Amino acid sequence: MAPPSPRGMPCGPRLAAVLLLAAAAALGFGVRAGAAQLCAEYYDRTCPGVHRVVRRVLKKAHEADARIYASLTRLHFHDCFVQGCDASILLDNSSSIVSEKFATPNNNSARGYPVVDAVKAALEEACPGVVSCADILAIAAKISVELVTTAPPVAPSSEQGNPKDRERSREDSTVVVINDRKVNLLESESGSLYALCRSWVRNGVPHESQPSFGNGEPILPRPLPASVVDSRISDKENNGAADLDSDEEPQKNADGEYNTSDLLKQHVKRAKKIRAGLQKERLRRIERYKQRLALLL
């Protein structure tokens, strides 16, 4: 069970002193002991109306911002992608931490924080000091997905579904060690396919968590044809572009679908070749510039 937060305290703590006290409390009780007390039916007993309260706040927020459902879902994903769903993305910078909220992939990009604070305030009135901020993000994302789909929402009753699929009581993170967290999800702001694939593997995302297409199988889209890629690179100045035509076609399985692993390798291989070709072009331009500069001197 997550340690209770002070009544009325927003999900994004503003005071360093509060963070230090919360961290000390967590260390005092022991993380392992707290994790052992997690249970799927926790809020059925301690805050039965949690889903109803969150749903009401989200619907009201959606009236003013049509993008809020997608924003909250994305916020939960960004929180979980960096070492687990611990609500650390809600922490502000302080004298002792550099929060992932203001990291390059999130700063001026991730949104929905005021709505999360509104949900926290509503839950503090209904169930003071019970629902953790990590669970608020998870429940808000779940309900957001339900509200934007055409299918009827699934009742949050503890008697339905697999207990492993229901929400658990998650612990909030109160400390961020910037050197231990892979905050820079992409190697560059361009967000190339190659950088995204490396980030995906580097953060240890399992095979089952890859995006699903069609019938739910984790199948990546086919790479762009070589002709489309070659059109962006000069045929006269890039000798490596011709190598793209020699890529082997990924093998199909018995169902006629392309293997996910083979497609991913194909994407990465093609991205490497394109990057190598662009690097050669850059070096050629630098060399031509040096030659022209030598003539002027």
TrEMBL record:
A single Gene Ontology CC term: transcription repressor complex
Site features described as Transition state stabilizer, chain residue numbers: 74
Principal EC category: oxidoreductase
Catalytic residues as annotated in Swiss-Prot or TrEMBL: 78 (proton acceptor)
One of the GO biological process terms: hydrogen peroxide catabolic process
Reaction catalyzed: 2 a phenolic donor + H2O2 = 2 a phenolic radical donor + 2 H2O
Primary subcellular site in the record, as a coarse category: secreted
EC number: 1.11.1.7
Entry keyword annotation includes Zinc-finger: no
Entry's localization field: Secreted
Names of required cofactors: Ca(2+); heme b
Keywords: Calcium, Disulfide bond, Heme, Hydrogen peroxide, Iron, Metal-binding, Oxidoreductase, Peroxidase, Secreted, Signal
Domain (Plant heme peroxidase family profile): residue spans on this chain: 37-216
Protein name: Peroxidase
